Amino acid sequence: MSEPILSVRDLNIRFHAAGRVTHAVRGVSFDIRNEKLAIVGESGSGKSQTGRALMRLSPPVARVTAERLDFQGRNLLAASERDMRRIRGKDIAMILQDPKFSLNPLIRVGQQISEAYRTHHRATRREARQKALSMLENVHIRDPERVYDLLPHEVSGGMGQRVMIAMMLISEPKMIIADEPTSALDVTVRRQVLSILDELVARSGASLVFISHDLNLVADFCDRVLVMYAGRVVEEIAAKDLGQARHPYTQGLLQSLPRLDAPVAELAVLERRPEWLEGPTFA
Fold first, then answer.
1. Strands 175-179 and 207-212, how do they pair?
2. For a Cys-Cys bond, which of 10, 30, 250, 270 suits 245, CB 3.0-4.6 Å?
3. Tens of pLDDT along the chain (283 residues)?
4. What is the DSSP string of the chain?
5. What angle do CA 177, 185, 48 make, to 5 degrees?
């Protein structure tokens, strides 16, 4: 088995605010190799905070600790902010969920892609523009020259998400963190965007951390799944085996999903039990 590109052991995130401490992520441990790893759970389960911690993008009120947080042998917790600026975008990229809030509304989308490339590579404006146009073609945008000069409000949600993918992958990162990149899209566009992301990840050989609440989606798209409940991982399972999950929480998530092949009068209500906060991780 190959060495992991990322190794996380006992990751904890605590928020100190208003005289209170909120333990948002509790003892999370995992490795990722050349694969597509999904992190799933309800809103507030800690999955997005885990993703942000991997890039050292937690807010100032957060206290992040870990026994190990290593990326390709580099200790991310001990890295200086200058080192992290070199890693972010070039080695680890993050695709956020809504381009309306992630793109600068005052700068044309092509310029934003070009700037992302020039941040990590020595290139003239002309070279960066050609690279950006090539990336727009790679994300299946039909008229890259026209789209390059559009402002963010002039592109649709699906096109905006393709622009975000182009911007994050233009520097050919070794690992991509996609934080619910399709949650703001309708079902048809969602599948198109995922197909493009899958194609680019396969072509580049990058590892992918895919954060989502959609179990049906990750079962089709990912290789392995971590299920988070109240800040901790309660189950680790191959995506193809998700239907045979053993933890009651994962089973509850699956039962709360509507299914065309098994319609019910009323969907199951998800249970939450105190013992799951300290129980074993199913693997």
1. parallel
2. 250
3. 678 999 999 999 999 988 899 999 999 999 999 999 999 999 999 999 999 999 999 999 999 999 999 999 999 999 999 999 999 999 999 998 777 788 999 999 999 999 999 999 999 999 999 999 999 999 999 999 999 999 999 998 889 999 999 999 999 999 999 998 887 777 778 888 888 889 999 998 999 999 998 888 899 899 999 999 999 999 999 999 998 999 999 999 998 888 777 787 888 888 888 889 888 888 8
4. -PPPSEEEEEEEEEEEETTEEEEEEEEEEEEE-SSEEEEE-STTSSHHHHHHHHTT---TTEEEE-SEEEETTEETTTS-HHHHHHHBTTTEEEE-S-HHHHS-TTS-HHHHHHHHHHHHS---HHHHHHHHHHHHHHTT-S-HHHHHT--GGGS-HHHHHHHHHHHHHTT--SEEEEESTTTTS-HHHHHHHHHHHHHHHHHHT-EEEEEES-HHHHHHH-SEEEEEETTEEEEEEEGGGGGG--SHHHHHHHHTS--SSS--SSPPPPP--GGGGTSPPB-
5. 30
Residue with tokens 């809103």: 43
Reply yes or no on domain 84-277 having CATH 3.30.1490.20. Answer: no
> Does the pTM of the predicted model rise above 0.70?
yes
Query: Where in the chain are the domains?
Result: 84-277
